[in-house]
Amino acid sequence: MCRGSCQVLLNSPGGNGGIIDVASSTEDFRKTTLRKFKQLVVERIQAPNLGIIGNEDVGFMFRSKQLEEEKTFAYYGIKPMSTIVMVVRLPGG
């Protein structure tokens, strides 16, 4: 159950993470896709600070699993105040 807004903790390269407001209700939080979350994160931290060209360079991990954009928080068992790790894909190889 969320009070005010449902949030997650974001660990990101460069320390630009923090608390991200995801939804105003638990139901909406559970239905949030990783694609929508990515949009929130990119807007929040202003990805150019990381040298990211676009949000296609950003991915997320939770409990050591790479998260797929079309899946929801409920699918992965992500609850309010869970910690999600942001991964930045770098060009090159």
From TrEMBL:
InterPro entries (alphabetical)? Ubiquitin-like_dom, Ubiquitin-like_domsf
Q: Name one Pfam family in it.
A: ubiquitin
Q: Where is the Ubiquitin-like domain?
A: 60-93
Q: Which domain of life is it from?
A: Eukaryota
Query: What protein name does the entry list?
Result: Ubiquitin-like domain-containing protein
Q: Which organism is it from?
A: Pleurodeles waltl (Iberian ribbed newt)
